[in-house]
Amino acid sequence: MKILTMIFLGVSLLFGTVDINNADQTELSSINGIGAKKADAIIKYRSTNCFKSIDELANVKGIGAKTVEKNRANLTANGCK
């Protein structure tokens, strides 16, 4: 089952984007330079803050502007949950 999930996420990144306001830990971890800990930090941050733009991702501890820039084409910041 994990293999199918990873294949699905890989394909979705090729053809789609990750919504940083709504993605789960697995989807966030598929972003280049974001592992499980940083994905958890994103989820924790957005529990009290809504990302109004992709640039605000750099406000999360451990994520810098370079990470945001190299992933910009694969990210969106749609409405919060």
Order of helical and strand elements: HEHHHE
Number of individual domains: 1
CATH superfamily: AF1531-like domain
Low-confidence region ranges: none
Global morphology = globular
How is the main sheet built?
2 strands, parallel
Structural class, by secondary structure, is mainly alpha
CATH architecture label? Orthogonal Bundle
Strand order of the largest sheet: 1-2
- Indicate the CATH topology: DNA polymerase, domain 1
CATH class: Mainly Alpha
- Number of helices in the DSSP assignment: 4
**Helical content class:** 40-55%
- Average pLDDT confidence is 87
Report the sheet-strand fraction: under 5%
Protein name: Helix-hairpin-helix domain-containing protein
GO molecular function, one term: DNA binding
Domain Helix-hairpin-helix DNA-binding motif class: 26-45, 55-74
Organism: Candidatus Sulfurimonas marisnigri
Overall description:
46% of the residues lie in helices and 5% in strands. It has 81 residues and is mostly helical. It has one domain (2-76): DNA polymerase, domain 1, CATH 1.10.150.280. It has a two-stranded parallel sheet. The radius of gyration is 12 Å and the shape is globular. The model has no long low-confidence stretch (mean pLDDT 87).
Quick structural summary:
By secondary structure, this protein is mostly helical. It has a single domain (2-76), classed as DNA polymerase, domain 1 (Orthogonal Bundle). It is 46% helix and 5% strand.
Write the topology of this structure:
Elements: H1 2-15, E1 18-19, H2 25-29, H3 36-46, H4 65-71, E2 75-76
Parallel strand pairs: 1-2
